[in-house]
């Protein structure tokens, strides 16, 4: 007998026998030690297996061959089994409508999956798949496609061929864009794209007339297309910022292309987000706010910002930098405190020295300030300072001050610079500042120290 013919006969017998296997036999052959939570098997009215679930096993050496002989299978669940590849003989499961391979160790998708023309539900979330192959567009019966928490960097244009798709989950990947063809998915009602690196959403998404839910949280988006019907679609757009995607190199090109290395410094945190930025000695137009590098106000990860000697007198959008702890706007042209600065309640260090400030609005709200420099301005009086009880260092030098109400409330103050003002006597409340170490009163109109200061431990400059 011809050997090739014999092999065909044996294969046919094997498949025929497998198709008539009972659930008990399958468990004995494949997963004899499985408990009821990790092994579930269902048969139809003819005794044929149509659903098989095997979870939490170790199939790192390959999916058991017997599974692919159960040609009556419609639903196959193999979750958390250390599976590294999908073999060719998956094409035997021509009746398969559900395939769940979540939480395995897949890095690619076998091209043979593209031949499962009856597949309606495909779940491959929590794997290490970096590329969604173009043949995914062949699965035109798909209703649901799960690819969350993988490592996808792009989506093929063939995704637009899935005309029956209703649910598409692509959250927690590395996507920077999605193709315009997404607009072809006319039956799509749920689209999850959270936790990616998307910078723009195509206008074609407005073509999805059946879309009910669109999740875009934690991306790099500034806006969403106005083609989306906001009255019909539930859109979640939280925690979006360019700062989650922007590199220091890109920022330099956008905000300060001609800066030299001394005038531009940028640092990132452990997550790769920009958290520290210094730009010095530039000539940003102070009469044309369009020339101010507004990209800065989109970097909400910033904790430290220095814009020194940059010729600015406005800071549009400063209130967006809610994570700022240190802000240095020294040697600019501000006539008053930047609008919205009072909302930066995490500020610990603030330097607005060497400007032309005549007033400061909302100072009392910056209750976490430890260091405040308002020296070399045009301040004649101020309000709210007594609320800043965490202040340790305060510089009001070279202004037009002649009084200091409620100074005794700054109980943590250690250094106080009032030189170059209009004081004729030491503000009375200063003697109550038990932690004060340095008091600079030079270049005022004070001619002598009161007796209570003559034996003080405070270093007094007069």
UniProtKB/TrEMBL annotation:
This is L domain-like protein. Residues 1-18 form the signal peptide. One of its GO terms (cellular component) is cytoplasm. Residues 111-305 form the Disease resistance R13L4/SHOC-2-like LRR domain. Keywords: Leucine-rich repeat, Repeat, Signal. InterPro entries: Leu-rich_rpt, Leu-rich_rpt_4, Leu-rich_rpt_typical-subtyp, LRR_dom_sf, LRR_domain-containing, LRR_R13L4/SHOC2-like.
